[in-house]
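Structure tokens please, single chain.
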Amino acid sequence: MDEIINGMIEGKTEPTPEEMEEWLTSDWNAKPKRFSHRLVSAPESGTKSRSLSFCSANRHPQATWHQAQTVRQECMQARRLSQFVVLFLSGLPLLANAQQRSADGDKVIALEKKWTEAYKQRNVSILSSLLAEEFVITVEDGSTYGKLGYISHSADSSVRVEVAELSDLRVRVHGNVAVVTGAYRETGTSKGKPYEYRDRLTDVWVKSPAGWQVIASHYSVPLTP
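Here you go.
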């Protein structure tokens, strides 16, 4: 019987019905541990018969298991790569918007400095190009001026601006609108008398087909402690 069992394990022999019956009715403790048995229903006779389910260790080689693991790892790597690509592509618009806001912010800060220099030099042409037609400014005493009134004041020859400087400038860009906050210091003479201003400013710029233009400005004097 051992020869028959070994032959069945190695796939070299096929047991006869008599040998199978003898093997099934023999002591199960003596059977190889690599075999199991189960009951199956005969489709036509309606009786039950025992058959063997051969679970040989050689049926699933170790190499096959390693191949399956390799395929699984490759699938997981491909999935991670696809997820990374999706995240990267979805982040491109945000990156592009951030870069655009940064570029617009730098442009507006440069225009703020250009505006200050043009005011100091009384360059009416540059002032006119930077101010929108709807421009309005509120100065320290609460007075307001439109574009024409501001340019007329800037061109006043009785006022000599010696220092006009900006500091602590910060810009926030929201689409076609940019808000600039900061500090402003101006010294000079007005009708021969010296003066000095130290203000906080808020400027609103709007982007149009002609470029960035300032549409509103507000200057206030900080409270001294």
